[in-house]
Specification:
It contains 20 helices and 17 strands. The protein is α/β, with parallel strands linked by helices. Bound molecules: D-serine (DSN).
Length: 488
């Protein structure tokens, strides 16, 4: 399988090398240590087995689009309706990014200003509050303009806004902090409750979600995850939302690439079913770091008020890079890439299971697998560190009902988007599974002074890390990152 740069973005290595060399020369003339760090980052990314489920490698076209004078422009407002003069070129790229996003996802409305997934969710939350709570409350108060509100009206409105409920997937089942949990502002904005997964299968039980929704009556039903290895039936989630009068927001940050590539379609495509869809642009979608929101028409106006309601000024250089990335994702080869992400995750899951590694939900049907490393007597933190010592980059993650809490955890989350971009196929992912199982099997917790197993310290049997590093290096050499790109 050819690696991504030629198939997905068609970059020419000679031209890209020249561009980067010149850029580093310009940067190095001012602060050489920054130029050196940029070069070192490429070397590090090239030489590690990157299995972090939320990371990827953007194309040189996407990356280069972010390094220019668009960065200097303020552009608060929306296309054709700015609070600053001279935004005609920003209008061009923002309109293009939104158009590509609408076409790519079949969405009636796209808002491409959010700077991150958290920001995209905040935009969505405020849009729902504005549309479903603020406007009806104003209407009820007989107010035609917000300036007509009396102090008493404001107090009623603040109470109405601050008295709303959100129901989302629990964190240890794979939900995300921004879905109403206390360490995030969403947990302060909303009274929150969560649904988990079935303790015996690890899968979502929609009847349980429905029962919880009926009992809790949320304003917002959140669907989406950052560590759940399965598809979600969004048609069913919408039915549940409708039954309780809730607004369905789907956070597809992790699996946007699978939606774009039509791997998730029908009931599993959130766009036709959700009122509002939020996302990042950089995970499986392989664009620049950023966020965006797709909305049904009744939420479009409120979504477009994201800046300045909850966002700082839009970043035109990143919106331009979103336009480039969305254009890449509209090419037929992106659908092939998305399918390979999922096929590779399935091969990785099978390879791990065959070698005795326990997986949450016993498998995957998206881009990630969640390993329960407790059967190796390890915490997620020990497993993550032992793998890193061996050249394998992952991140620890809670598993359902995790006895080790959110810091040490009992799980490790592994995703296939990045290495699939490098051209890894199912055979390579089976080899990755073998390397992971070898390292986990060779790692033992160190005893504490009291004789109990440490949650943090560990030892790896002699030679295993070195052997794994050289096996990983062989795999990486067969699938170079940005092949032919030479910084000189
Ligand atoms: N940080 C992202 C992830 O790793 O899933 C989501 O917040």
């Amino acid at each position: 399988m050819t690696a991504f740069p030629r198939t997905a973005t068609g970059f020419d290595a000679t031209t890209a090398s020249a561009a980067y060399r010149s850029a580093l020369e310009v940067i190095g003339a001012v602060e050489p240590r920054v130029a050196d760090a940029i070069g070192a980052e490429l070397a590090d990314q090239r030489s590690s087995l990157k299995l972090i489920a939320s990371e990827n490698y953007a194309s040189p076209a996407v990356l280069l689009t972010m390094g220019n004078w668009f960065s200097d422009k303020y552009a608060e407002g929306t296309v054709g309706h700015r609070f600053y003069a001279g935004c005609q070129n920003v209008d061009t790229v923002e309109a293009l990014a939104a158009e590509h996003a609408r076409e790519l996802f079949g969405a009636p409305h796209a808002y491409v200003q959010p700077h991150s997934g958290i920001d995209a969710n905040l935009v969505a939350f405020w849009a729902v509050l504005a549309q479903r709570v603020e406007l009806p409350a104003l209407e009820k108060a007989g107010v035609r303009h917000v300036n007509d509100l009396t102090d008493e009206d404001w107090s009623t409105l603040r109470h109405a806004l601050g008295d709303q409920r959100m129901l989302g997937m629990s964190l240890d089942a794979g939900g995300h902090l921004t879905h109403g949990f206390r360490p995030n502002i969403s947990g302060k904005m909303f009274e929150q409750s969560s649904y988990g997964t079935d303790p015996s299968t690890g899968l979502l039980d929609y009847d349980v979600v429905r029962a919880r929704a009926k009992e809790f009556r949320p304003l917002i039903l959140m669907a989406g995850y950052s560590a759940f290895p399965r598809r979600i039936n969004f048609a069913t989630m919408r039915e549940i939302a409708d039954e309780v009068g809730a607004t369905l927001i789907v956070d597809m940050a992790h699996f946007a690439g699978l939606v774009a590539g039509k791997v998730f379609s029908g009931d599993f495509d959130p766009v036709p079913h959700a009122h509002v869809v939020t996302s990042t642009s950089h995970k499986s979608l392989r664009g620049p770091r950023g966020g965006f929101v797709l909305a049904q028409p009744e939420f479009a106006d409120a979504v477009d008020r994201g800046c300045p309601m909850v966002l700082g000024g839009p970043l035109p250089h990143v919106m331009a890079a979103k336009a480039v990335a969305f254009a890449e994702a509209r090419r037929p080869e992106f659908a092939d890439y998305a399918q390979r992400i999922v096929d590779n995750a399935a091969a990785l899951a099978e390879g791990l299971k065959r070698r005795g590694v326990r997986l949450v939900t016993d498998g995957t049907d998206n881009h990630l697998v969640l390993l329960d490393v407790s059967s190796f007597g390890l915490t997620g933190r020990q497993a993550e560190s032992a793998l890193l010592d061996s050249g394998i980059v992952t991140n620890r993650n809670s598993v359902p009902a995790d006895p080790n809490g959110a810091w040490y955890t009992s799980g490790v989350r592994i995703g296939t988007p990045a290495l699939t971009t490098r051209g890894f196929g199912q055979a390579e992912f089976d080899r990755v599974a073998e390397l992971i199982a070898d390292v986990l099997g060779a790692t033992t917790p160190t005893a504490t002074s009291a004789g109990a197993p440490s949650q943090a310290k560990y030892t790896i049997a002699d030679g295993v890390s070195d052997r794994t590093r050289s096996a990983a290096a062989e795999l990486l050499a067969e699938h170079p990152l940005y092949p032919g790109l030479d910084l000189g």
